[in-house]
Amino acid sequence: MFKKISSYSVLAVLVIFAMLLSACGTAATEEPAAAEEAAPAESMEEEPAGEALAVGIVLPTKDEPRWIQDETRFTDALNAAGYNVEILFSQGDSAKEKANVESLISKDIKVLIICPQDGAAAAAAAEEARAAGVKVISYDRLILGTDAVDYYVTFDSNAVGAQQAQYLVDHATGSGNPLYLYAGAASDNNAFLFFEGAWSVLQPKIADGTFVIKNSSEAVALQDTAALSRDEMSKIIGQVTTNWDFNTAKNLAEANLTATTAADKGDVFILAPNDGTARAIADAFAVDTDVTSYYVTGQDAEKASVQYIIDGKQSMTVFKDVRTLVSDAISAAVALLQDTAPESKGSYNNGAADIPAIQSAVVTVDKDNVQSALIDSGYYSASEFTGLE
Description:
alpha/beta; seven-stranded mixed beta sheet; four-stranded parallel beta sheet; 48% helix
Protein backbone atom coordinates (compact mmCIF):
# COMPACT_ATOMS: atom_id res chain seq x y z
CA MET A 1 0.00 0.00 0.00
CA PHE A 2 1.15 3.53 -0.79
CA LYS A 3 1.57 5.88 2.16
CA LYS A 4 -0.27 9.19 2.08
CA ILE A 5 2.08 12.16 1.58
CA SER A 6 1.42 15.46 3.31
CA SER A 7 0.94 18.67 1.32
CA TYR A 8 4.15 20.06 2.89
CA SER A 9 6.12 17.09 1.65
CA VAL A 10 4.75 17.57 -1.87
CA LEU A 11 5.65 21.23 -1.82
CA ALA A 12 9.19 20.46 -0.66
CA VAL A 13 9.69 17.97 -3.49
CA LEU A 14 8.46 20.47 -6.08
CA VAL A 15 10.83 23.16 -4.79
CA ILE A 16 13.82 20.82 -4.93
CA PHE A 17 12.85 19.69 -8.47
CA ALA A 18 12.60 23.30 -9.66
CA MET A 19 16.03 24.07 -8.22
CA LEU A 20 17.52 21.09 -10.04
CA LEU A 21 15.97 22.21 -13.35
CA SER A 22 17.34 25.72 -12.88
CA ALA A 23 20.84 24.40 -12.18
CA CYS A 24 20.76 22.17 -15.26
CA GLY A 25 19.57 25.04 -17.45
CA THR A 26 22.34 27.31 -16.19
CA ALA A 27 24.98 24.67 -16.92
CA ALA A 28 23.57 24.10 -20.40
CA THR A 29 23.76 27.78 -21.26
CA GLU A 30 27.22 28.19 -19.77
CA GLU A 31 28.90 25.27 -21.60
CA PRO A 32 28.82 26.81 -25.13
CA ALA A 33 30.33 30.01 -23.77
CA ALA A 34 33.16 27.98 -22.27
CA ALA A 35 33.62 26.21 -25.61
CA GLU A 36 33.68 29.55 -27.41
CA GLU A 37 36.35 30.82 -25.05
CA ALA A 38 38.44 27.72 -25.69
CA ALA A 39 38.24 27.98 -29.49
CA PRO A 40 40.73 30.81 -29.97
CA ALA A 41 43.28 29.01 -27.80
CA GLU A 42 42.90 25.89 -29.96
CA SER A 43 43.30 28.00 -33.12
CA MET A 44 46.45 29.60 -31.74
CA GLU A 45 47.95 26.15 -31.20
CA GLU A 46 47.48 25.36 -34.92
CA GLU A 47 49.41 28.48 -35.95
CA PRO A 48 52.44 28.90 -33.70
CA ALA A 49 53.85 32.37 -33.22
CA GLY A 50 56.31 33.33 -35.96
CA GLU A 51 54.58 31.41 -38.77
CA ALA A 52 53.50 34.51 -40.67
CA LEU A 53 52.45 34.32 -44.30
CA ALA A 54 55.73 34.88 -46.15
CA VAL A 55 54.84 34.46 -49.82
CA GLY A 56 51.67 35.29 -51.73
CA ILE A 57 51.08 34.03 -55.26
CA VAL A 58 48.50 35.19 -57.80
CA LEU A 59 47.93 33.02 -60.90
CA PRO A 60 45.67 33.87 -63.87
CA THR A 61 43.12 31.03 -63.96
CA LYS A 62 42.17 27.58 -62.70
CA ASP A 63 40.71 26.76 -66.11
CA GLU A 64 44.03 25.79 -67.74
CA PRO A 65 45.93 22.68 -66.58
CA ARG A 66 49.21 24.57 -66.75
CA TRP A 67 48.33 26.84 -63.81
CA ILE A 68 47.01 23.99 -61.66
CA GLN A 69 50.41 22.32 -62.16
CA ASP A 70 52.14 25.50 -61.05
CA GLU A 71 49.91 25.79 -57.97
CA THR A 72 50.80 22.27 -56.83
CA ARG A 73 54.52 22.71 -57.41
CA PHE A 74 54.64 26.09 -55.65
CA THR A 75 52.74 24.80 -52.62
CA ASP A 76 54.83 21.65 -52.23
CA ALA A 77 58.18 23.37 -52.72
CA LEU A 78 57.56 26.39 -50.50
CA ASN A 79 56.05 24.31 -47.71
CA ALA A 80 59.01 21.93 -47.91
CA ALA A 81 61.33 24.94 -47.61
CA GLY A 82 59.49 26.01 -44.46
CA TYR A 83 57.62 29.03 -45.85
CA ASN A 84 53.90 29.63 -45.60
CA VAL A 85 52.23 30.42 -48.92
CA GLU A 86 48.76 31.36 -50.13
CA ILE A 87 47.84 31.01 -53.80
CA LEU A 88 44.91 32.88 -55.35
CA PHE A 89 43.47 32.79 -58.87
CA SER A 90 42.23 35.79 -60.85
CA GLN A 91 40.02 33.82 -63.26
CA GLY A 92 40.72 36.14 -66.18
CA ASP A 93 39.60 39.25 -64.29
CA SER A 94 42.08 42.08 -63.70
CA ALA A 95 39.87 43.59 -60.98
CA LYS A 96 39.85 40.30 -59.11
CA GLU A 97 43.61 40.07 -59.61
CA LYS A 98 44.08 43.44 -57.92
CA ALA A 99 41.74 42.43 -55.10
CA ASN A 100 43.75 39.23 -54.65
CA VAL A 101 46.97 41.23 -54.34
CA GLU A 102 45.38 43.60 -51.82
CA SER A 103 44.14 40.65 -49.78
CA LEU A 104 47.65 39.18 -49.65
CA ILE A 105 49.18 42.54 -48.73
CA SER A 106 46.74 42.78 -45.82
CA LYS A 107 48.15 39.47 -44.55
CA ASP A 108 51.65 40.96 -44.36
CA ILE A 109 53.30 38.95 -47.12
CA LYS A 110 56.95 39.76 -47.75
CA VAL A 111 57.17 38.59 -51.38
CA LEU A 112 54.49 38.62 -54.09
CA ILE A 113 54.79 36.28 -57.09
CA ILE A 114 52.26 37.28 -59.73
CA CYS A 115 51.51 36.07 -63.23
CA PRO A 116 49.50 39.00 -64.58
CA GLN A 117 46.23 38.49 -66.39
CA ASP A 118 46.80 41.79 -68.17
CA GLY A 119 50.37 43.08 -68.07
CA ALA A 120 49.40 46.77 -68.14
CA ALA A 121 46.50 46.49 -65.70
CA ALA A 122 48.66 44.63 -63.18
CA ALA A 123 50.94 47.67 -62.79
CA ALA A 124 48.61 49.24 -60.20
CA ALA A 125 48.67 46.07 -58.08
CA ALA A 126 52.47 45.90 -58.27
CA GLU A 127 52.72 49.53 -57.15
CA GLU A 128 50.44 48.86 -54.17
CA ALA A 129 52.66 45.96 -53.17
CA ARG A 130 55.81 48.08 -53.56
CA ALA A 131 54.25 50.84 -51.40
CA ALA A 132 53.58 48.24 -48.70
CA GLY A 133 57.22 47.15 -48.71
CA VAL A 134 56.52 43.88 -50.57
CA LYS A 135 59.02 42.57 -53.12
CA VAL A 136 57.38 41.80 -56.49
CA ILE A 137 58.32 38.95 -58.82
CA SER A 138 56.58 38.99 -62.20
CA TYR A 139 56.12 35.32 -63.05
CA ASP A 140 56.03 33.93 -66.61
CA ARG A 141 54.37 37.12 -67.94
CA LEU A 142 55.82 40.60 -67.59
CA ILE A 143 54.04 43.40 -65.75
CA LEU A 144 54.19 46.49 -67.93
CA GLY A 145 54.54 50.24 -67.45
CA THR A 146 55.93 50.37 -63.90
CA ASP A 147 59.25 50.15 -62.12
CA ALA A 148 57.56 48.44 -59.14
CA VAL A 149 58.79 45.00 -60.27
CA ASP A 150 61.92 43.59 -58.68
CA TYR A 151 62.47 40.52 -60.89
CA TYR A 152 60.98 38.78 -63.89
CA VAL A 153 61.10 34.96 -63.84
CA THR A 154 60.36 33.61 -67.29
CA PHE A 155 61.15 31.23 -70.08
CA ASP A 156 62.86 32.67 -73.15
CA SER A 157 59.61 33.72 -74.82
CA ASN A 158 61.20 34.73 -78.12
CA ALA A 159 62.80 31.30 -78.29
CA VAL A 160 59.38 29.66 -77.79
CA GLY A 161 57.94 31.37 -80.87
CA ALA A 162 61.12 30.78 -82.87
CA GLN A 163 61.07 27.05 -82.09
CA GLN A 164 57.41 26.78 -83.05
CA ALA A 165 58.10 28.49 -86.37
CA GLN A 166 61.25 26.50 -87.03
CA TYR A 167 59.28 23.28 -86.70
CA LEU A 168 56.92 24.45 -89.44
CA VAL A 169 59.81 25.53 -91.65
CA ASP A 170 61.60 22.20 -91.17
CA HIS A 171 58.55 20.25 -92.36
CA ALA A 172 57.63 22.43 -95.34
CA THR A 173 58.66 21.49 -98.87
CA GLY A 174 58.17 23.29 -102.15
CA SER A 175 56.31 26.58 -102.31
CA GLY A 176 52.84 27.98 -101.77
CA ASN A 177 52.19 26.08 -98.53
CA PRO A 178 49.04 27.48 -96.82
CA LEU A 179 49.97 29.15 -93.51
CA TYR A 180 47.44 29.96 -90.78
CA LEU A 181 48.58 32.28 -87.99
CA TYR A 182 47.12 32.36 -84.47
CA ALA A 183 48.24 34.29 -81.38
CA GLY A 184 47.58 34.61 -77.67
CA ALA A 185 45.77 37.44 -75.91
CA ALA A 186 46.56 41.01 -76.94
CA SER A 187 46.56 41.92 -73.21
CA ASP A 188 49.46 39.51 -72.57
CA ASN A 189 52.96 40.78 -73.34
CA ASN A 190 54.10 37.18 -73.85
CA ALA A 191 51.78 36.88 -76.85
CA PHE A 192 53.84 39.60 -78.53
CA LEU A 193 57.14 37.97 -77.58
CA PHE A 194 56.01 34.58 -78.90
CA PHE A 195 54.76 36.12 -82.13
CA GLU A 196 57.90 38.21 -82.54
CA GLY A 197 60.05 35.08 -82.22
CA ALA A 198 57.88 33.15 -84.67
CA TRP A 199 57.77 35.99 -87.22
CA SER A 200 61.57 36.26 -87.22
CA VAL A 201 61.75 32.69 -88.52
CA LEU A 202 58.63 32.60 -90.69
CA GLN A 203 58.97 35.95 -92.46
CA PRO A 204 61.92 34.97 -94.72
CA LYS A 205 60.04 31.83 -95.77
CA ILE A 206 56.91 33.89 -96.43
CA ALA A 207 58.92 36.37 -98.48
CA ASP A 208 60.47 33.61 -100.62
CA GLY A 209 57.10 31.97 -101.28
CA THR A 210 57.51 28.82 -99.15
CA PHE A 211 54.44 29.88 -97.16
CA VAL A 212 51.34 31.84 -98.16
CA ILE A 213 49.37 33.48 -95.34
CA LYS A 214 45.67 32.57 -95.57
CA ASN A 215 43.91 34.10 -92.58
CA SER A 216 45.28 37.60 -91.90
CA SER A 217 45.15 40.51 -94.31
CA GLU A 218 47.27 42.53 -91.87
CA ALA A 219 50.02 39.88 -91.93
CA VAL A 220 49.88 39.76 -95.73
CA ALA A 221 50.29 43.55 -95.88
CA LEU A 222 53.41 43.28 -93.68
CA GLN A 223 54.87 40.10 -95.13
CA ASP A 224 57.93 41.91 -96.50
CA THR A 225 58.74 43.49 -93.15
CA ALA A 226 61.42 41.48 -91.34
CA ALA A 227 61.12 43.15 -87.91
CA LEU A 228 57.65 44.25 -86.84
CA SER A 229 56.98 47.13 -84.49
CA ARG A 230 54.65 46.62 -81.54
CA ASP A 231 51.89 48.49 -83.37
CA GLU A 232 52.34 46.32 -86.46
CA MET A 233 52.17 43.16 -84.37
CA SER A 234 49.06 44.54 -82.67
CA LYS A 235 47.31 44.80 -86.03
CA ILE A 236 48.06 41.16 -86.86
CA ILE A 237 47.29 39.83 -83.38
CA GLY A 238 44.01 41.74 -83.46
CA GLN A 239 42.94 39.54 -86.39
CA VAL A 240 44.26 36.20 -85.15
CA THR A 241 43.98 36.37 -81.36
CA THR A 242 42.64 33.33 -79.53
CA ASN A 243 42.62 35.22 -76.24
CA TRP A 244 44.14 31.99 -74.83
CA ASP A 245 40.61 30.57 -74.93
CA PHE A 246 39.75 27.12 -76.36
CA ASN A 247 36.34 28.09 -77.68
CA THR A 248 37.59 31.35 -79.19
CA ALA A 249 40.37 29.44 -80.94
CA LYS A 250 38.02 26.78 -82.30
CA ASN A 251 35.46 29.34 -83.49
CA LEU A 252 38.15 31.43 -85.17
CA ALA A 253 39.65 28.40 -86.92
CA GLU A 254 36.21 27.32 -88.16
CA ALA A 255 35.51 30.84 -89.41
CA ASN A 256 38.87 30.92 -91.22
CA LEU A 257 38.19 27.59 -92.89
CA THR A 258 34.71 28.67 -93.94
CA ALA A 259 36.08 31.88 -95.46
CA THR A 260 38.74 30.12 -97.57
CA THR A 261 38.48 27.91 -100.63
CA ALA A 262 39.59 24.32 -101.06
CA ALA A 263 42.70 25.64 -102.79
CA ASP A 264 43.65 27.43 -99.56
CA LYS A 265 43.68 24.14 -97.65
CA GLY A 266 45.25 20.83 -98.63
CA ASP A 267 48.52 20.38 -96.67
CA VAL A 268 48.43 23.24 -94.18
CA PHE A 269 50.79 24.71 -91.61
CA ILE A 270 49.38 26.24 -88.43
CA LEU A 271 51.10 28.50 -85.90
CA ALA A 272 49.08 27.91 -82.72
CA PRO A 273 50.30 29.78 -79.62
CA ASN A 274 49.84 27.16 -76.88
CA ASP A 275 48.61 23.62 -76.27
CA GLY A 276 45.02 24.41 -75.34
CA THR A 277 44.44 26.48 -78.47
CA ALA A 278 46.43 23.97 -80.55
CA ARG A 279 44.03 21.16 -79.64
CA ALA A 280 40.98 23.33 -80.37
CA ILE A 281 42.37 24.49 -83.71
CA ALA A 282 43.53 20.98 -84.64
CA ASP A 283 40.04 19.62 -83.97
CA ALA A 284 38.58 22.19 -86.38
CA PHE A 285 41.09 21.45 -89.16
CA ALA A 286 40.83 17.68 -88.67
CA VAL A 287 37.15 17.58 -89.62
CA ASP A 288 37.47 19.80 -92.71
CA THR A 289 37.38 17.43 -95.69
CA ASP A 290 39.47 19.81 -97.83
CA VAL A 291 42.37 19.61 -95.35
CA THR A 292 44.63 16.76 -96.44
CA SER A 293 47.14 17.10 -93.60
CA TYR A 294 48.26 19.67 -91.09
CA TYR A 295 51.21 20.60 -88.89
CA VAL A 296 50.23 22.50 -85.75
CA THR A 297 52.44 23.95 -83.02
CA GLY A 298 51.87 24.34 -79.28
CA GLN A 299 53.60 25.02 -75.98
CA ASP A 300 53.45 23.94 -72.31
CA ALA A 301 53.53 20.14 -72.79
CA GLU A 302 50.07 19.73 -71.25
CA LYS A 303 49.09 16.10 -70.69
CA ALA A 304 46.19 16.29 -73.15
CA SER A 305 48.49 17.67 -75.84
CA VAL A 306 51.18 15.07 -75.16
CA GLN A 307 48.51 12.45 -75.84
CA TYR A 308 47.49 14.37 -78.99
CA ILE A 309 51.12 14.28 -80.14
CA ILE A 310 51.36 10.54 -79.49
CA ASP A 311 48.10 10.06 -81.43
CA GLY A 312 49.23 12.26 -84.33
CA LYS A 313 46.65 15.00 -83.70
CA GLN A 314 49.16 17.69 -82.69
CA SER A 315 52.61 18.01 -84.22
CA MET A 316 54.75 19.47 -81.46
CA THR A 317 54.87 21.39 -78.22
CA VAL A 318 57.50 23.62 -76.71
CA PHE A 319 58.31 22.05 -73.36
CA LYS A 320 58.74 24.67 -70.67
CA ASP A 321 59.76 22.66 -67.64
CA VAL A 322 57.55 24.21 -64.97
CA ARG A 323 59.71 22.54 -62.33
CA THR A 324 62.59 24.77 -63.44
CA LEU A 325 60.47 27.92 -63.61
CA VAL A 326 58.90 27.31 -60.19
CA SER A 327 62.33 26.51 -58.76
CA ASP A 328 63.73 29.75 -60.19
CA ALA A 329 60.82 31.75 -58.77
CA ILE A 330 61.18 30.14 -55.35
CA SER A 331 64.94 30.69 -55.33
CA ALA A 332 64.34 34.36 -56.13
CA ALA A 333 61.68 34.65 -53.42
CA VAL A 334 63.85 32.97 -50.78
CA ALA A 335 66.79 35.22 -51.69
CA LEU A 336 64.57 38.28 -51.27
CA LEU A 337 63.26 36.97 -47.95
CA GLN A 338 66.87 36.67 -46.84
CA ASP A 339 67.69 40.18 -48.10
CA THR A 340 70.02 38.97 -50.85
CA ALA A 341 69.89 39.62 -54.60
CA PRO A 342 68.77 36.74 -56.86
CA GLU A 343 71.10 35.92 -59.75
CA SER A 344 69.65 37.37 -62.96
CA LYS A 345 70.45 36.75 -66.61
CA GLY A 346 69.72 39.79 -68.74
CA SER A 347 66.69 42.04 -68.50
CA TYR A 348 63.41 42.97 -70.20
CA ASN A 349 62.24 46.52 -70.70
CA ASN A 350 58.60 46.83 -69.64
CA GLY A 351 58.12 50.37 -70.90
CA ALA A 352 59.13 51.98 -67.61
CA ALA A 353 62.29 50.17 -66.53
CA ASP A 354 64.69 47.37 -67.36
CA ILE A 355 63.52 44.49 -65.17
CA PRO A 356 66.23 41.96 -64.18
CA ALA A 357 65.28 38.60 -65.68
CA ILE A 358 65.82 35.01 -64.64
CA GLN A 359 65.31 32.95 -67.81
CA SER A 360 64.82 29.20 -68.24
CA ALA A 361 65.54 27.23 -71.41
CA VAL A 362 62.84 25.62 -73.58
CA VAL A 363 62.81 22.35 -75.57
CA THR A 364 60.97 21.31 -78.74
CA VAL A 365 59.07 18.04 -78.23
CA ASP A 366 57.37 15.94 -80.91
CA LYS A 367 56.52 12.27 -81.28
CA ASP A 368 60.18 11.34 -81.72
CA ASN A 369 61.36 12.59 -78.32
CA VAL A 370 58.28 12.43 -76.08
CA GLN A 371 59.80 9.49 -74.23
CA SER A 372 63.20 11.05 -73.59
CA ALA A 373 62.07 14.63 -72.91
CA LEU A 374 58.95 14.04 -70.83
CA ILE A 375 58.95 10.47 -69.51
CA ASP A 376 62.62 9.65 -68.91
CA SER A 377 63.11 13.09 -67.33
CA GLY A 378 60.47 12.22 -64.72
CA TYR A 379 58.16 15.07 -65.71
CA TYR A 380 55.37 12.61 -66.50
CA SER A 381 54.85 8.90 -65.92
CA ALA A 382 54.42 6.56 -68.89
CA SER A 383 51.26 5.22 -67.23
CA GLU A 384 49.55 8.57 -67.85
CA PHE A 385 49.49 7.97 -71.61
CA THR A 386 48.46 5.35 -74.13
CA GLY A 387 50.28 4.39 -77.33
CA LEU A 388 53.81 5.18 -76.20
CA GLU A 389 56.33 3.15 -78.18
